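ok here's Glucose-1-phosphate adenylyltransferase, seq below lol
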Amino acid sequence: MAYVLAGGRGSRLMELTDNRAKPAVYFGGMSRIIDFALSNALNSGIRRIGVATQYKAHSLIRHMQRAWNFMRPERNESFDILPASQRIDEFHWYEGTADAVFQNIDIIASHAPQYIVILAGDHIYKMDYELMLQQHVQEGADVTVGCIEVPRMQATAFGVMHVDENGQITSFLEKPKDPPAMPGKPDVALASMGIYVFTTEFLFEQLRRDADDPESRRDFGGDIIPYIVKHGKAVAHLFSSSAIRAGAQIEEYWRDVGTLDAYWEANIDLTDVVPKLNMYDREWPIWTDQIIAAPAKFVHDEEGRRGMAVSSLISQDCIVSGASAWRSLLFTGVKMGSFSDVQEGVILPYCNIGRGARLKRVIVDSGVRIPEGLVVGEDPVADAQRFRRTDSGICLITKSMIDRLD
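and the structure came out like this:
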């Protein structure tokens, strides 16, 4: 069984998560972030899936109901959406990642899985969990932790582990200020991906023990994993050994799109001629909600008023009317008016770009109507006064920000 933790807000995405959980944020033209963990599980042969939700979960739950309703009990498949619902008592929601599993032990047990894969629902990557499961069984581990090599000082936001020559984890530090380096690689740290494999009964034992500890924060990275490292056998699984690559010579791709800069960059990465993340791979597809809509349309062919897109991803139901998109993503239902121009833009579903507007290095939230003639990305001072602007110059534009312009 795969159990996806999808309850977090993702506050570093600022206003982009004011009305939706981070796993529900749109990505890549047609998908949501959570579709990557769910698709990896399905493509890995896992047919029992549970998803724990908490923060502003309506759009996330609605998406899963529409996109993931094809699992059938008669085929020994199941898809459980598990909102925080005070199942233990009347006072507690999910208090941490471990508690989000503990409160649903009875539901997990009803499916009787021998092994359980715990997943974070807010990362962008392709991975075959079957290979990680095989390693877990072969090595007789109590827990197997998915991990990735990262530059050492970027590891301060992750759980970081020491491993011995056999790959066994000897220490696990949650978000250390001075991350320890890998043996023989002084500038690289081994960071947790938030992916864990357990034998189900062993996990239940650890969750019950942790629930009885008044000092625990009910967290996998902060409590459960460090305890097993000290008292059991915890093994590291390198992402490089099970990543689904875009090509034999292309490095593996994993992104925590937890900031506006990282989110914008990961989307724009897809416009590369040969992107490191292959969204066109029919052998390892990213499943999502298949909206019934018309094809994208480009109209007008006059000098200065030509419907065109260069190095861009244009989704269904888009109309580019005498406008141009350069190295951009137009999600479902975006309409661009004549003489408008978008450069390096991530334009979320059902936005309307007014005539003559010029947008550069932007993220436009879903449903926003950009006024005619609006210019963003050319005057840093004006951008910062009107919109959410990052230090690197990426501007987030939301409905409320546009409303304030009036």
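fwiw The radius of gyration is 22 Å. kinda neat tbh
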